[in-house]
Specification:
Layout: E1 4-10, H1 16-25, E2 29-31, H2 35-44, H3 55-58, H4 62-80, E3 87-91, H5 94-103, H6 110-118, E4 123-127, H7 144-160, E5 165-167, H8 173-184
Parallel strand pairs: 1-3, 1-4, 2-3, 4-5
Length: 186
């Protein structure tokens, strides 16, 4: 069985985690945001130069961090290929890595470009920046205005690699999940 691989993406604090958790609570397979694990690891190792910006931009070795992030996301994709389910969801995908690297003006090595071309998703849902729910915390560093710019980089990254980006309307978590599932089951 070929599972549909579905990405939920968007700028910081757009409700991605809540939507993913809601989808997972309905019994769907979901791969969670991998950068949280890496950020905590970098904190534990004292590898973060600052906690005031995204770890992609504040670790001692951004290229190494991005390689680990890319490896984590590609591992999730590979694991999904062994799962026999109709729909499999990802909290961010491979093109997210490139979007953030481009936003922070970091050099894209061929390994990143090749991975974004190789690991294709069936559907990509973008949760747009939403002022009413936006909040920062110890894992969300960007301002709302920066988040809007990141959102543009995310959309461009996915479209550059052949994905059609579907914007999820502002609504309750339940209605956003319904929107995503209806589109995914078509």
């Amino acid at each position: 069985m070929n599972s549909k691989k579905i990405v939920i993406t968007g700028g910081p604090a757009t409700g991605k985690t809540s939507v993913i958790q809601g989808i997972e609570s309905l019994g769907y397979i979901c791969f969670h945001e991998y950068i949280r694990e890496l950020t905590n690891e970098a904190k534990d190792l004292g590898d973060l130069a600052s906690l005031e910006t995204n770890p992609i931009n504040s670790v001692a070795d951004p290229l190494d961090f991005n390689r680990k992030l890319l490896d984590g996301r590609t591992d999730q994709y590979k694991k999904s290929k062994k799962i026999n389910e109709n729909l499999i969801f990802f909290d961010r995908g491979v093109p997210d890595v490139l979007a953030y690297m481009n936003f922070y003006q970091q050099e894209l090595k061929s390994e990143f470009i090749d991975a974004a071309a190789a690991y294709q998703y069936d559907l990509v849902f973008l949760l747009p920046m939403w002022k009413e729910i936006f909040a920062t915390d110890e894992e969300r560093f960007e301002s709302f205005e920066v988040g809007l710019k990141i959102q543009d980089y995310l959309r461009k990254s996915y479209t550059d690699y052949g994905h059609n980006v579907i914007e999820v309307p502002f609504d309750s978590i339940e209605n956003r999940i319904d929107f995503i599932l209806k589109k995914a089951n078509n």
